[in-house]
Design a protein that fits this description.
The chain is globular. The two termini are 41 Å apart. With 952 residues, it is mainly beta. The chain contains three helices and 73 strands. The strands form 19 sheets. Strands 65, 66, 67, 68, 69, 70, 71, 72 and 73 form a nine-stranded antiparallel sheet that branches. Strands 1-64-63-62 form a four-stranded antiparallel sheet, with no helix packed on it. It has a four-stranded antiparallel sheet with strand order 3-4-5-6.
Length: 952
Amino acid sequence: MKPRTFILAAAAAVCSGPLLAGSGTWTSEGPYGGIVYRLYVSPAAPGTLYAGTRGGIFRSNDGGVSWVRKEAGLSGSLGVAGISLAIDAEAANTLWLVDGVGRVNRSSDGGDNWALTGYSRPAYDVNQIVDAPGGTGRLYLVTETSGVLVSNDSGASFTASGSGLPAGVPLAHLAIDAANPLRMLAGTRGYDATDPLHTESIYLSTDGGASWTGTLGSASYYMGVTDISFGAGGKVYAAVDDALYRSDDGGASWTGPLLGPPYNNSIMAVRADPATPNTVFIGGYKGLARSTDGGVSSTPLTTGLIVTAGMPASVNRIVMHPNYPAAAQLWLGTEEAGIYFSASAGASWTARSDGLAATNIRALAMFHDAATHRMFAGYGDAFRPSPALFRGNNAGPGTPFSSWAPSNTNLGAYQIRSITIDPTTRSGGIGSTRLYATGRAGPYPDLDARDGGIYRSLDGGGTWTTIDVGLPVSGNPPAANVGTVRNLVLDPRSCAAPPPSGPCASGPLQTLYATSNGKHDGATGTDSFRVLKSGNGGDSWLSSDTGIPQPIDAATPQRQSVLVVPIVINPLNPQELYVGTSANYDATALAAPTIQSGVFRSTDGGANWVFRSNGLPRRAGSSHTALDVLSLAINPANPLELWCSVVDLSVGGAASGGIYHTVDGGANWSSASNGISATDIRALLVDPSQPNVLYASGAGSDANPGSVYKSSNGGATWHSISIGLPADAATALQVDPVDPSVLYAGSTSGVWSITQLPDSDADGVPDAVEQAAPNGGDGNADGIADALQPGVGSLTSASADGNAQPATLQPYFTVSITPLAGQCSQAMDVQSVYAAYHGRDVSSYGDDYVYPRQLARFEIQDCQSAKVKLKFHGASFGSGFGMRYFGPAIPGDPATLGWHDFSVRANRIAADTWELTLDNGQFGSYRPASANAILFEGGPARSEGIFRDGFD
């Protein structure tokens, strides 16, 4: 995932000294690591590595010690695109990538710049892109629907590779023998049911893909092939259905499955020793092993790979130094734990993920006292071993987190979904502070890493204990299991001796509530433990979900059930709690759901729950099933006031939803989405020091970016504060407990922070920046200061080096909006974007467009149509200039992202001023019409090619 913007370059025009981290714009903070899909070492420069990750595309120039994002010119769900990344072995600066909408991209400068080749496939059709060794410009696509495709023009076009591959069978992996590039092996993606027509899993070609023959089959279906590696002496190794297979004749026939416990049924990656035929490295769910007898037996190589609960990182990529084994260096890509390096042929490992921002952070909490300022960040949605919980330290509010480390000693979790600090235990410092974390442990078959998903630390996160006594058990051997535990709250008056009123000052607190998937009883068709309660600080738990609807028609396709997600507690009367639920049902079997779902309230400490959802939007055709409630927030000063977010998850892309508000304890709800353009709100947060200040984060995509929103009036109106934020926004929010101007967000690329600067008109440009604009801060010369006009924003242009520059070096531009239809009175996130960040904009003459003043980006709230003037102070645009737009040609469609001519909707009305006509849901806006907002990015540009005929 790439950041949506490059820089807000105006802050230094009015500030002296170094800027605080995230001042006025979102800044990446770490922690680092995460899912690695592809990993390559440059054959020409072994210190250069490339990684395709869930967080995007990264390069290292120092052997993996540090990593830098390399995405200039890329767009289209790059976290997905990391699956399809390749390097040209003969031209090591040439890379290819298939983005999330199926477009082939190429870089010829080591990833510094990317451009489309012009070829595309359907979204998610490409599982792998493979360079053909022995020549430049030849590569292959491994597809879901069309077998193996081959290109001889560096990705500009592809054709079918040859005959013999089964029609309609998805392929997942292709390996080419570097010693004989005509010999190739293709593996299928896997099938989980009987398919007697297609039982072969690996296909061999000895003529460069002109023809194929099946060489490895099963009794009744094709299996899943995740890796194939050619070795010395005709040996080939393959990971097939999580098992190891070996061929002694170059893939013509196979032996297997090989190996016994613990590596059977756990293998994802193989890498043959290029010099020793019987030696192979084996990676998978149990870490890394090496076999020296052709896969008959193996030895674990997990020193340094243990990440949590005694479990090693799951290895899905094994990369060797080009001169291995003379240079005994190896790198590993893992499922959830980033990249590891060994200088000793795997004898020991060290993490090498600094800068690799691909951690999926779903939970945040902060501790502060005079000696310690610490952030806890939980890794979400992991089903393989991950660090699970990180702790970071900084020098104080707004300063960068200079160090992150796992905080998971004895923590039996693979993922963390909530972190809660007991405030009554803070007085003794971090070392005696009690923390709770919830999430999920290892799934089956990781029998040695299963527990109930609730954890407690008595020493500030230094060590952890699982606290799941009383939870239902399953499995063999039995272990506590209630699925994912998503949220946990504390009763603030549940200490041993509570005061007459108000929260306890000393603790620890004893009454805890949590929400989880719960336990389904197949015999009775009932669910329990969706709400959990403990009265002894987590030492034991009881089910507390009476009144939460039981499944309907539990044994039929018409089954309906509810999942309990958020929970909040009334701090003034802790007997009162609220939960939000999400409905599960088969839309193909039911015309409309009938189960009660939405918000429920308990007034007796969770003993009973009552439906409390009047006014929340319902599923189509339903009277009782509200849209999915994914977050809740309560006003600590007035607990009758709550907010919730609802999303229609039954529709792909969460096409409808928003924020709702109640002032009577949930008896009635009304929409509170004024200013919210995102429909998929995943987090709500009330600033505890200013309960009228709220934050919300909305998910999105590159072509319809998500945002973080702020309301200063209790949710009556919202505005975006999203400059620099990743396109898919955030799933966790945290206000700094010392300085509420500092806000943190958890995303799929780690933690991001922003230090909010005064911005009276909420247009995204700090007041001090607008006050320094031309004409004494009146950039549009209308007699009113720009800093006081929500529809006017003035700031300096972006700089090439990414550093803020004074106005003497980077002159100002001004955005001013005139409504045509709709209110169109509020500009948001007005910013400058460095044009080259989007890659080359190539004219019809083959040369690049030049952007002397870079790009202007802004969003207009509550708007159907508007005129926008862009005044670039001091500029003089000749007749050779036109207006260019970067964004989707079809609003919201990532497949149409790119550079476009916008001159038909733009007029130059003065030497330095352009006037744009913009319409909601039309060309020139990222947003689809349903957003009722216009998001534009573009600027004046000139192609030198227009002068070639001798005319201006």
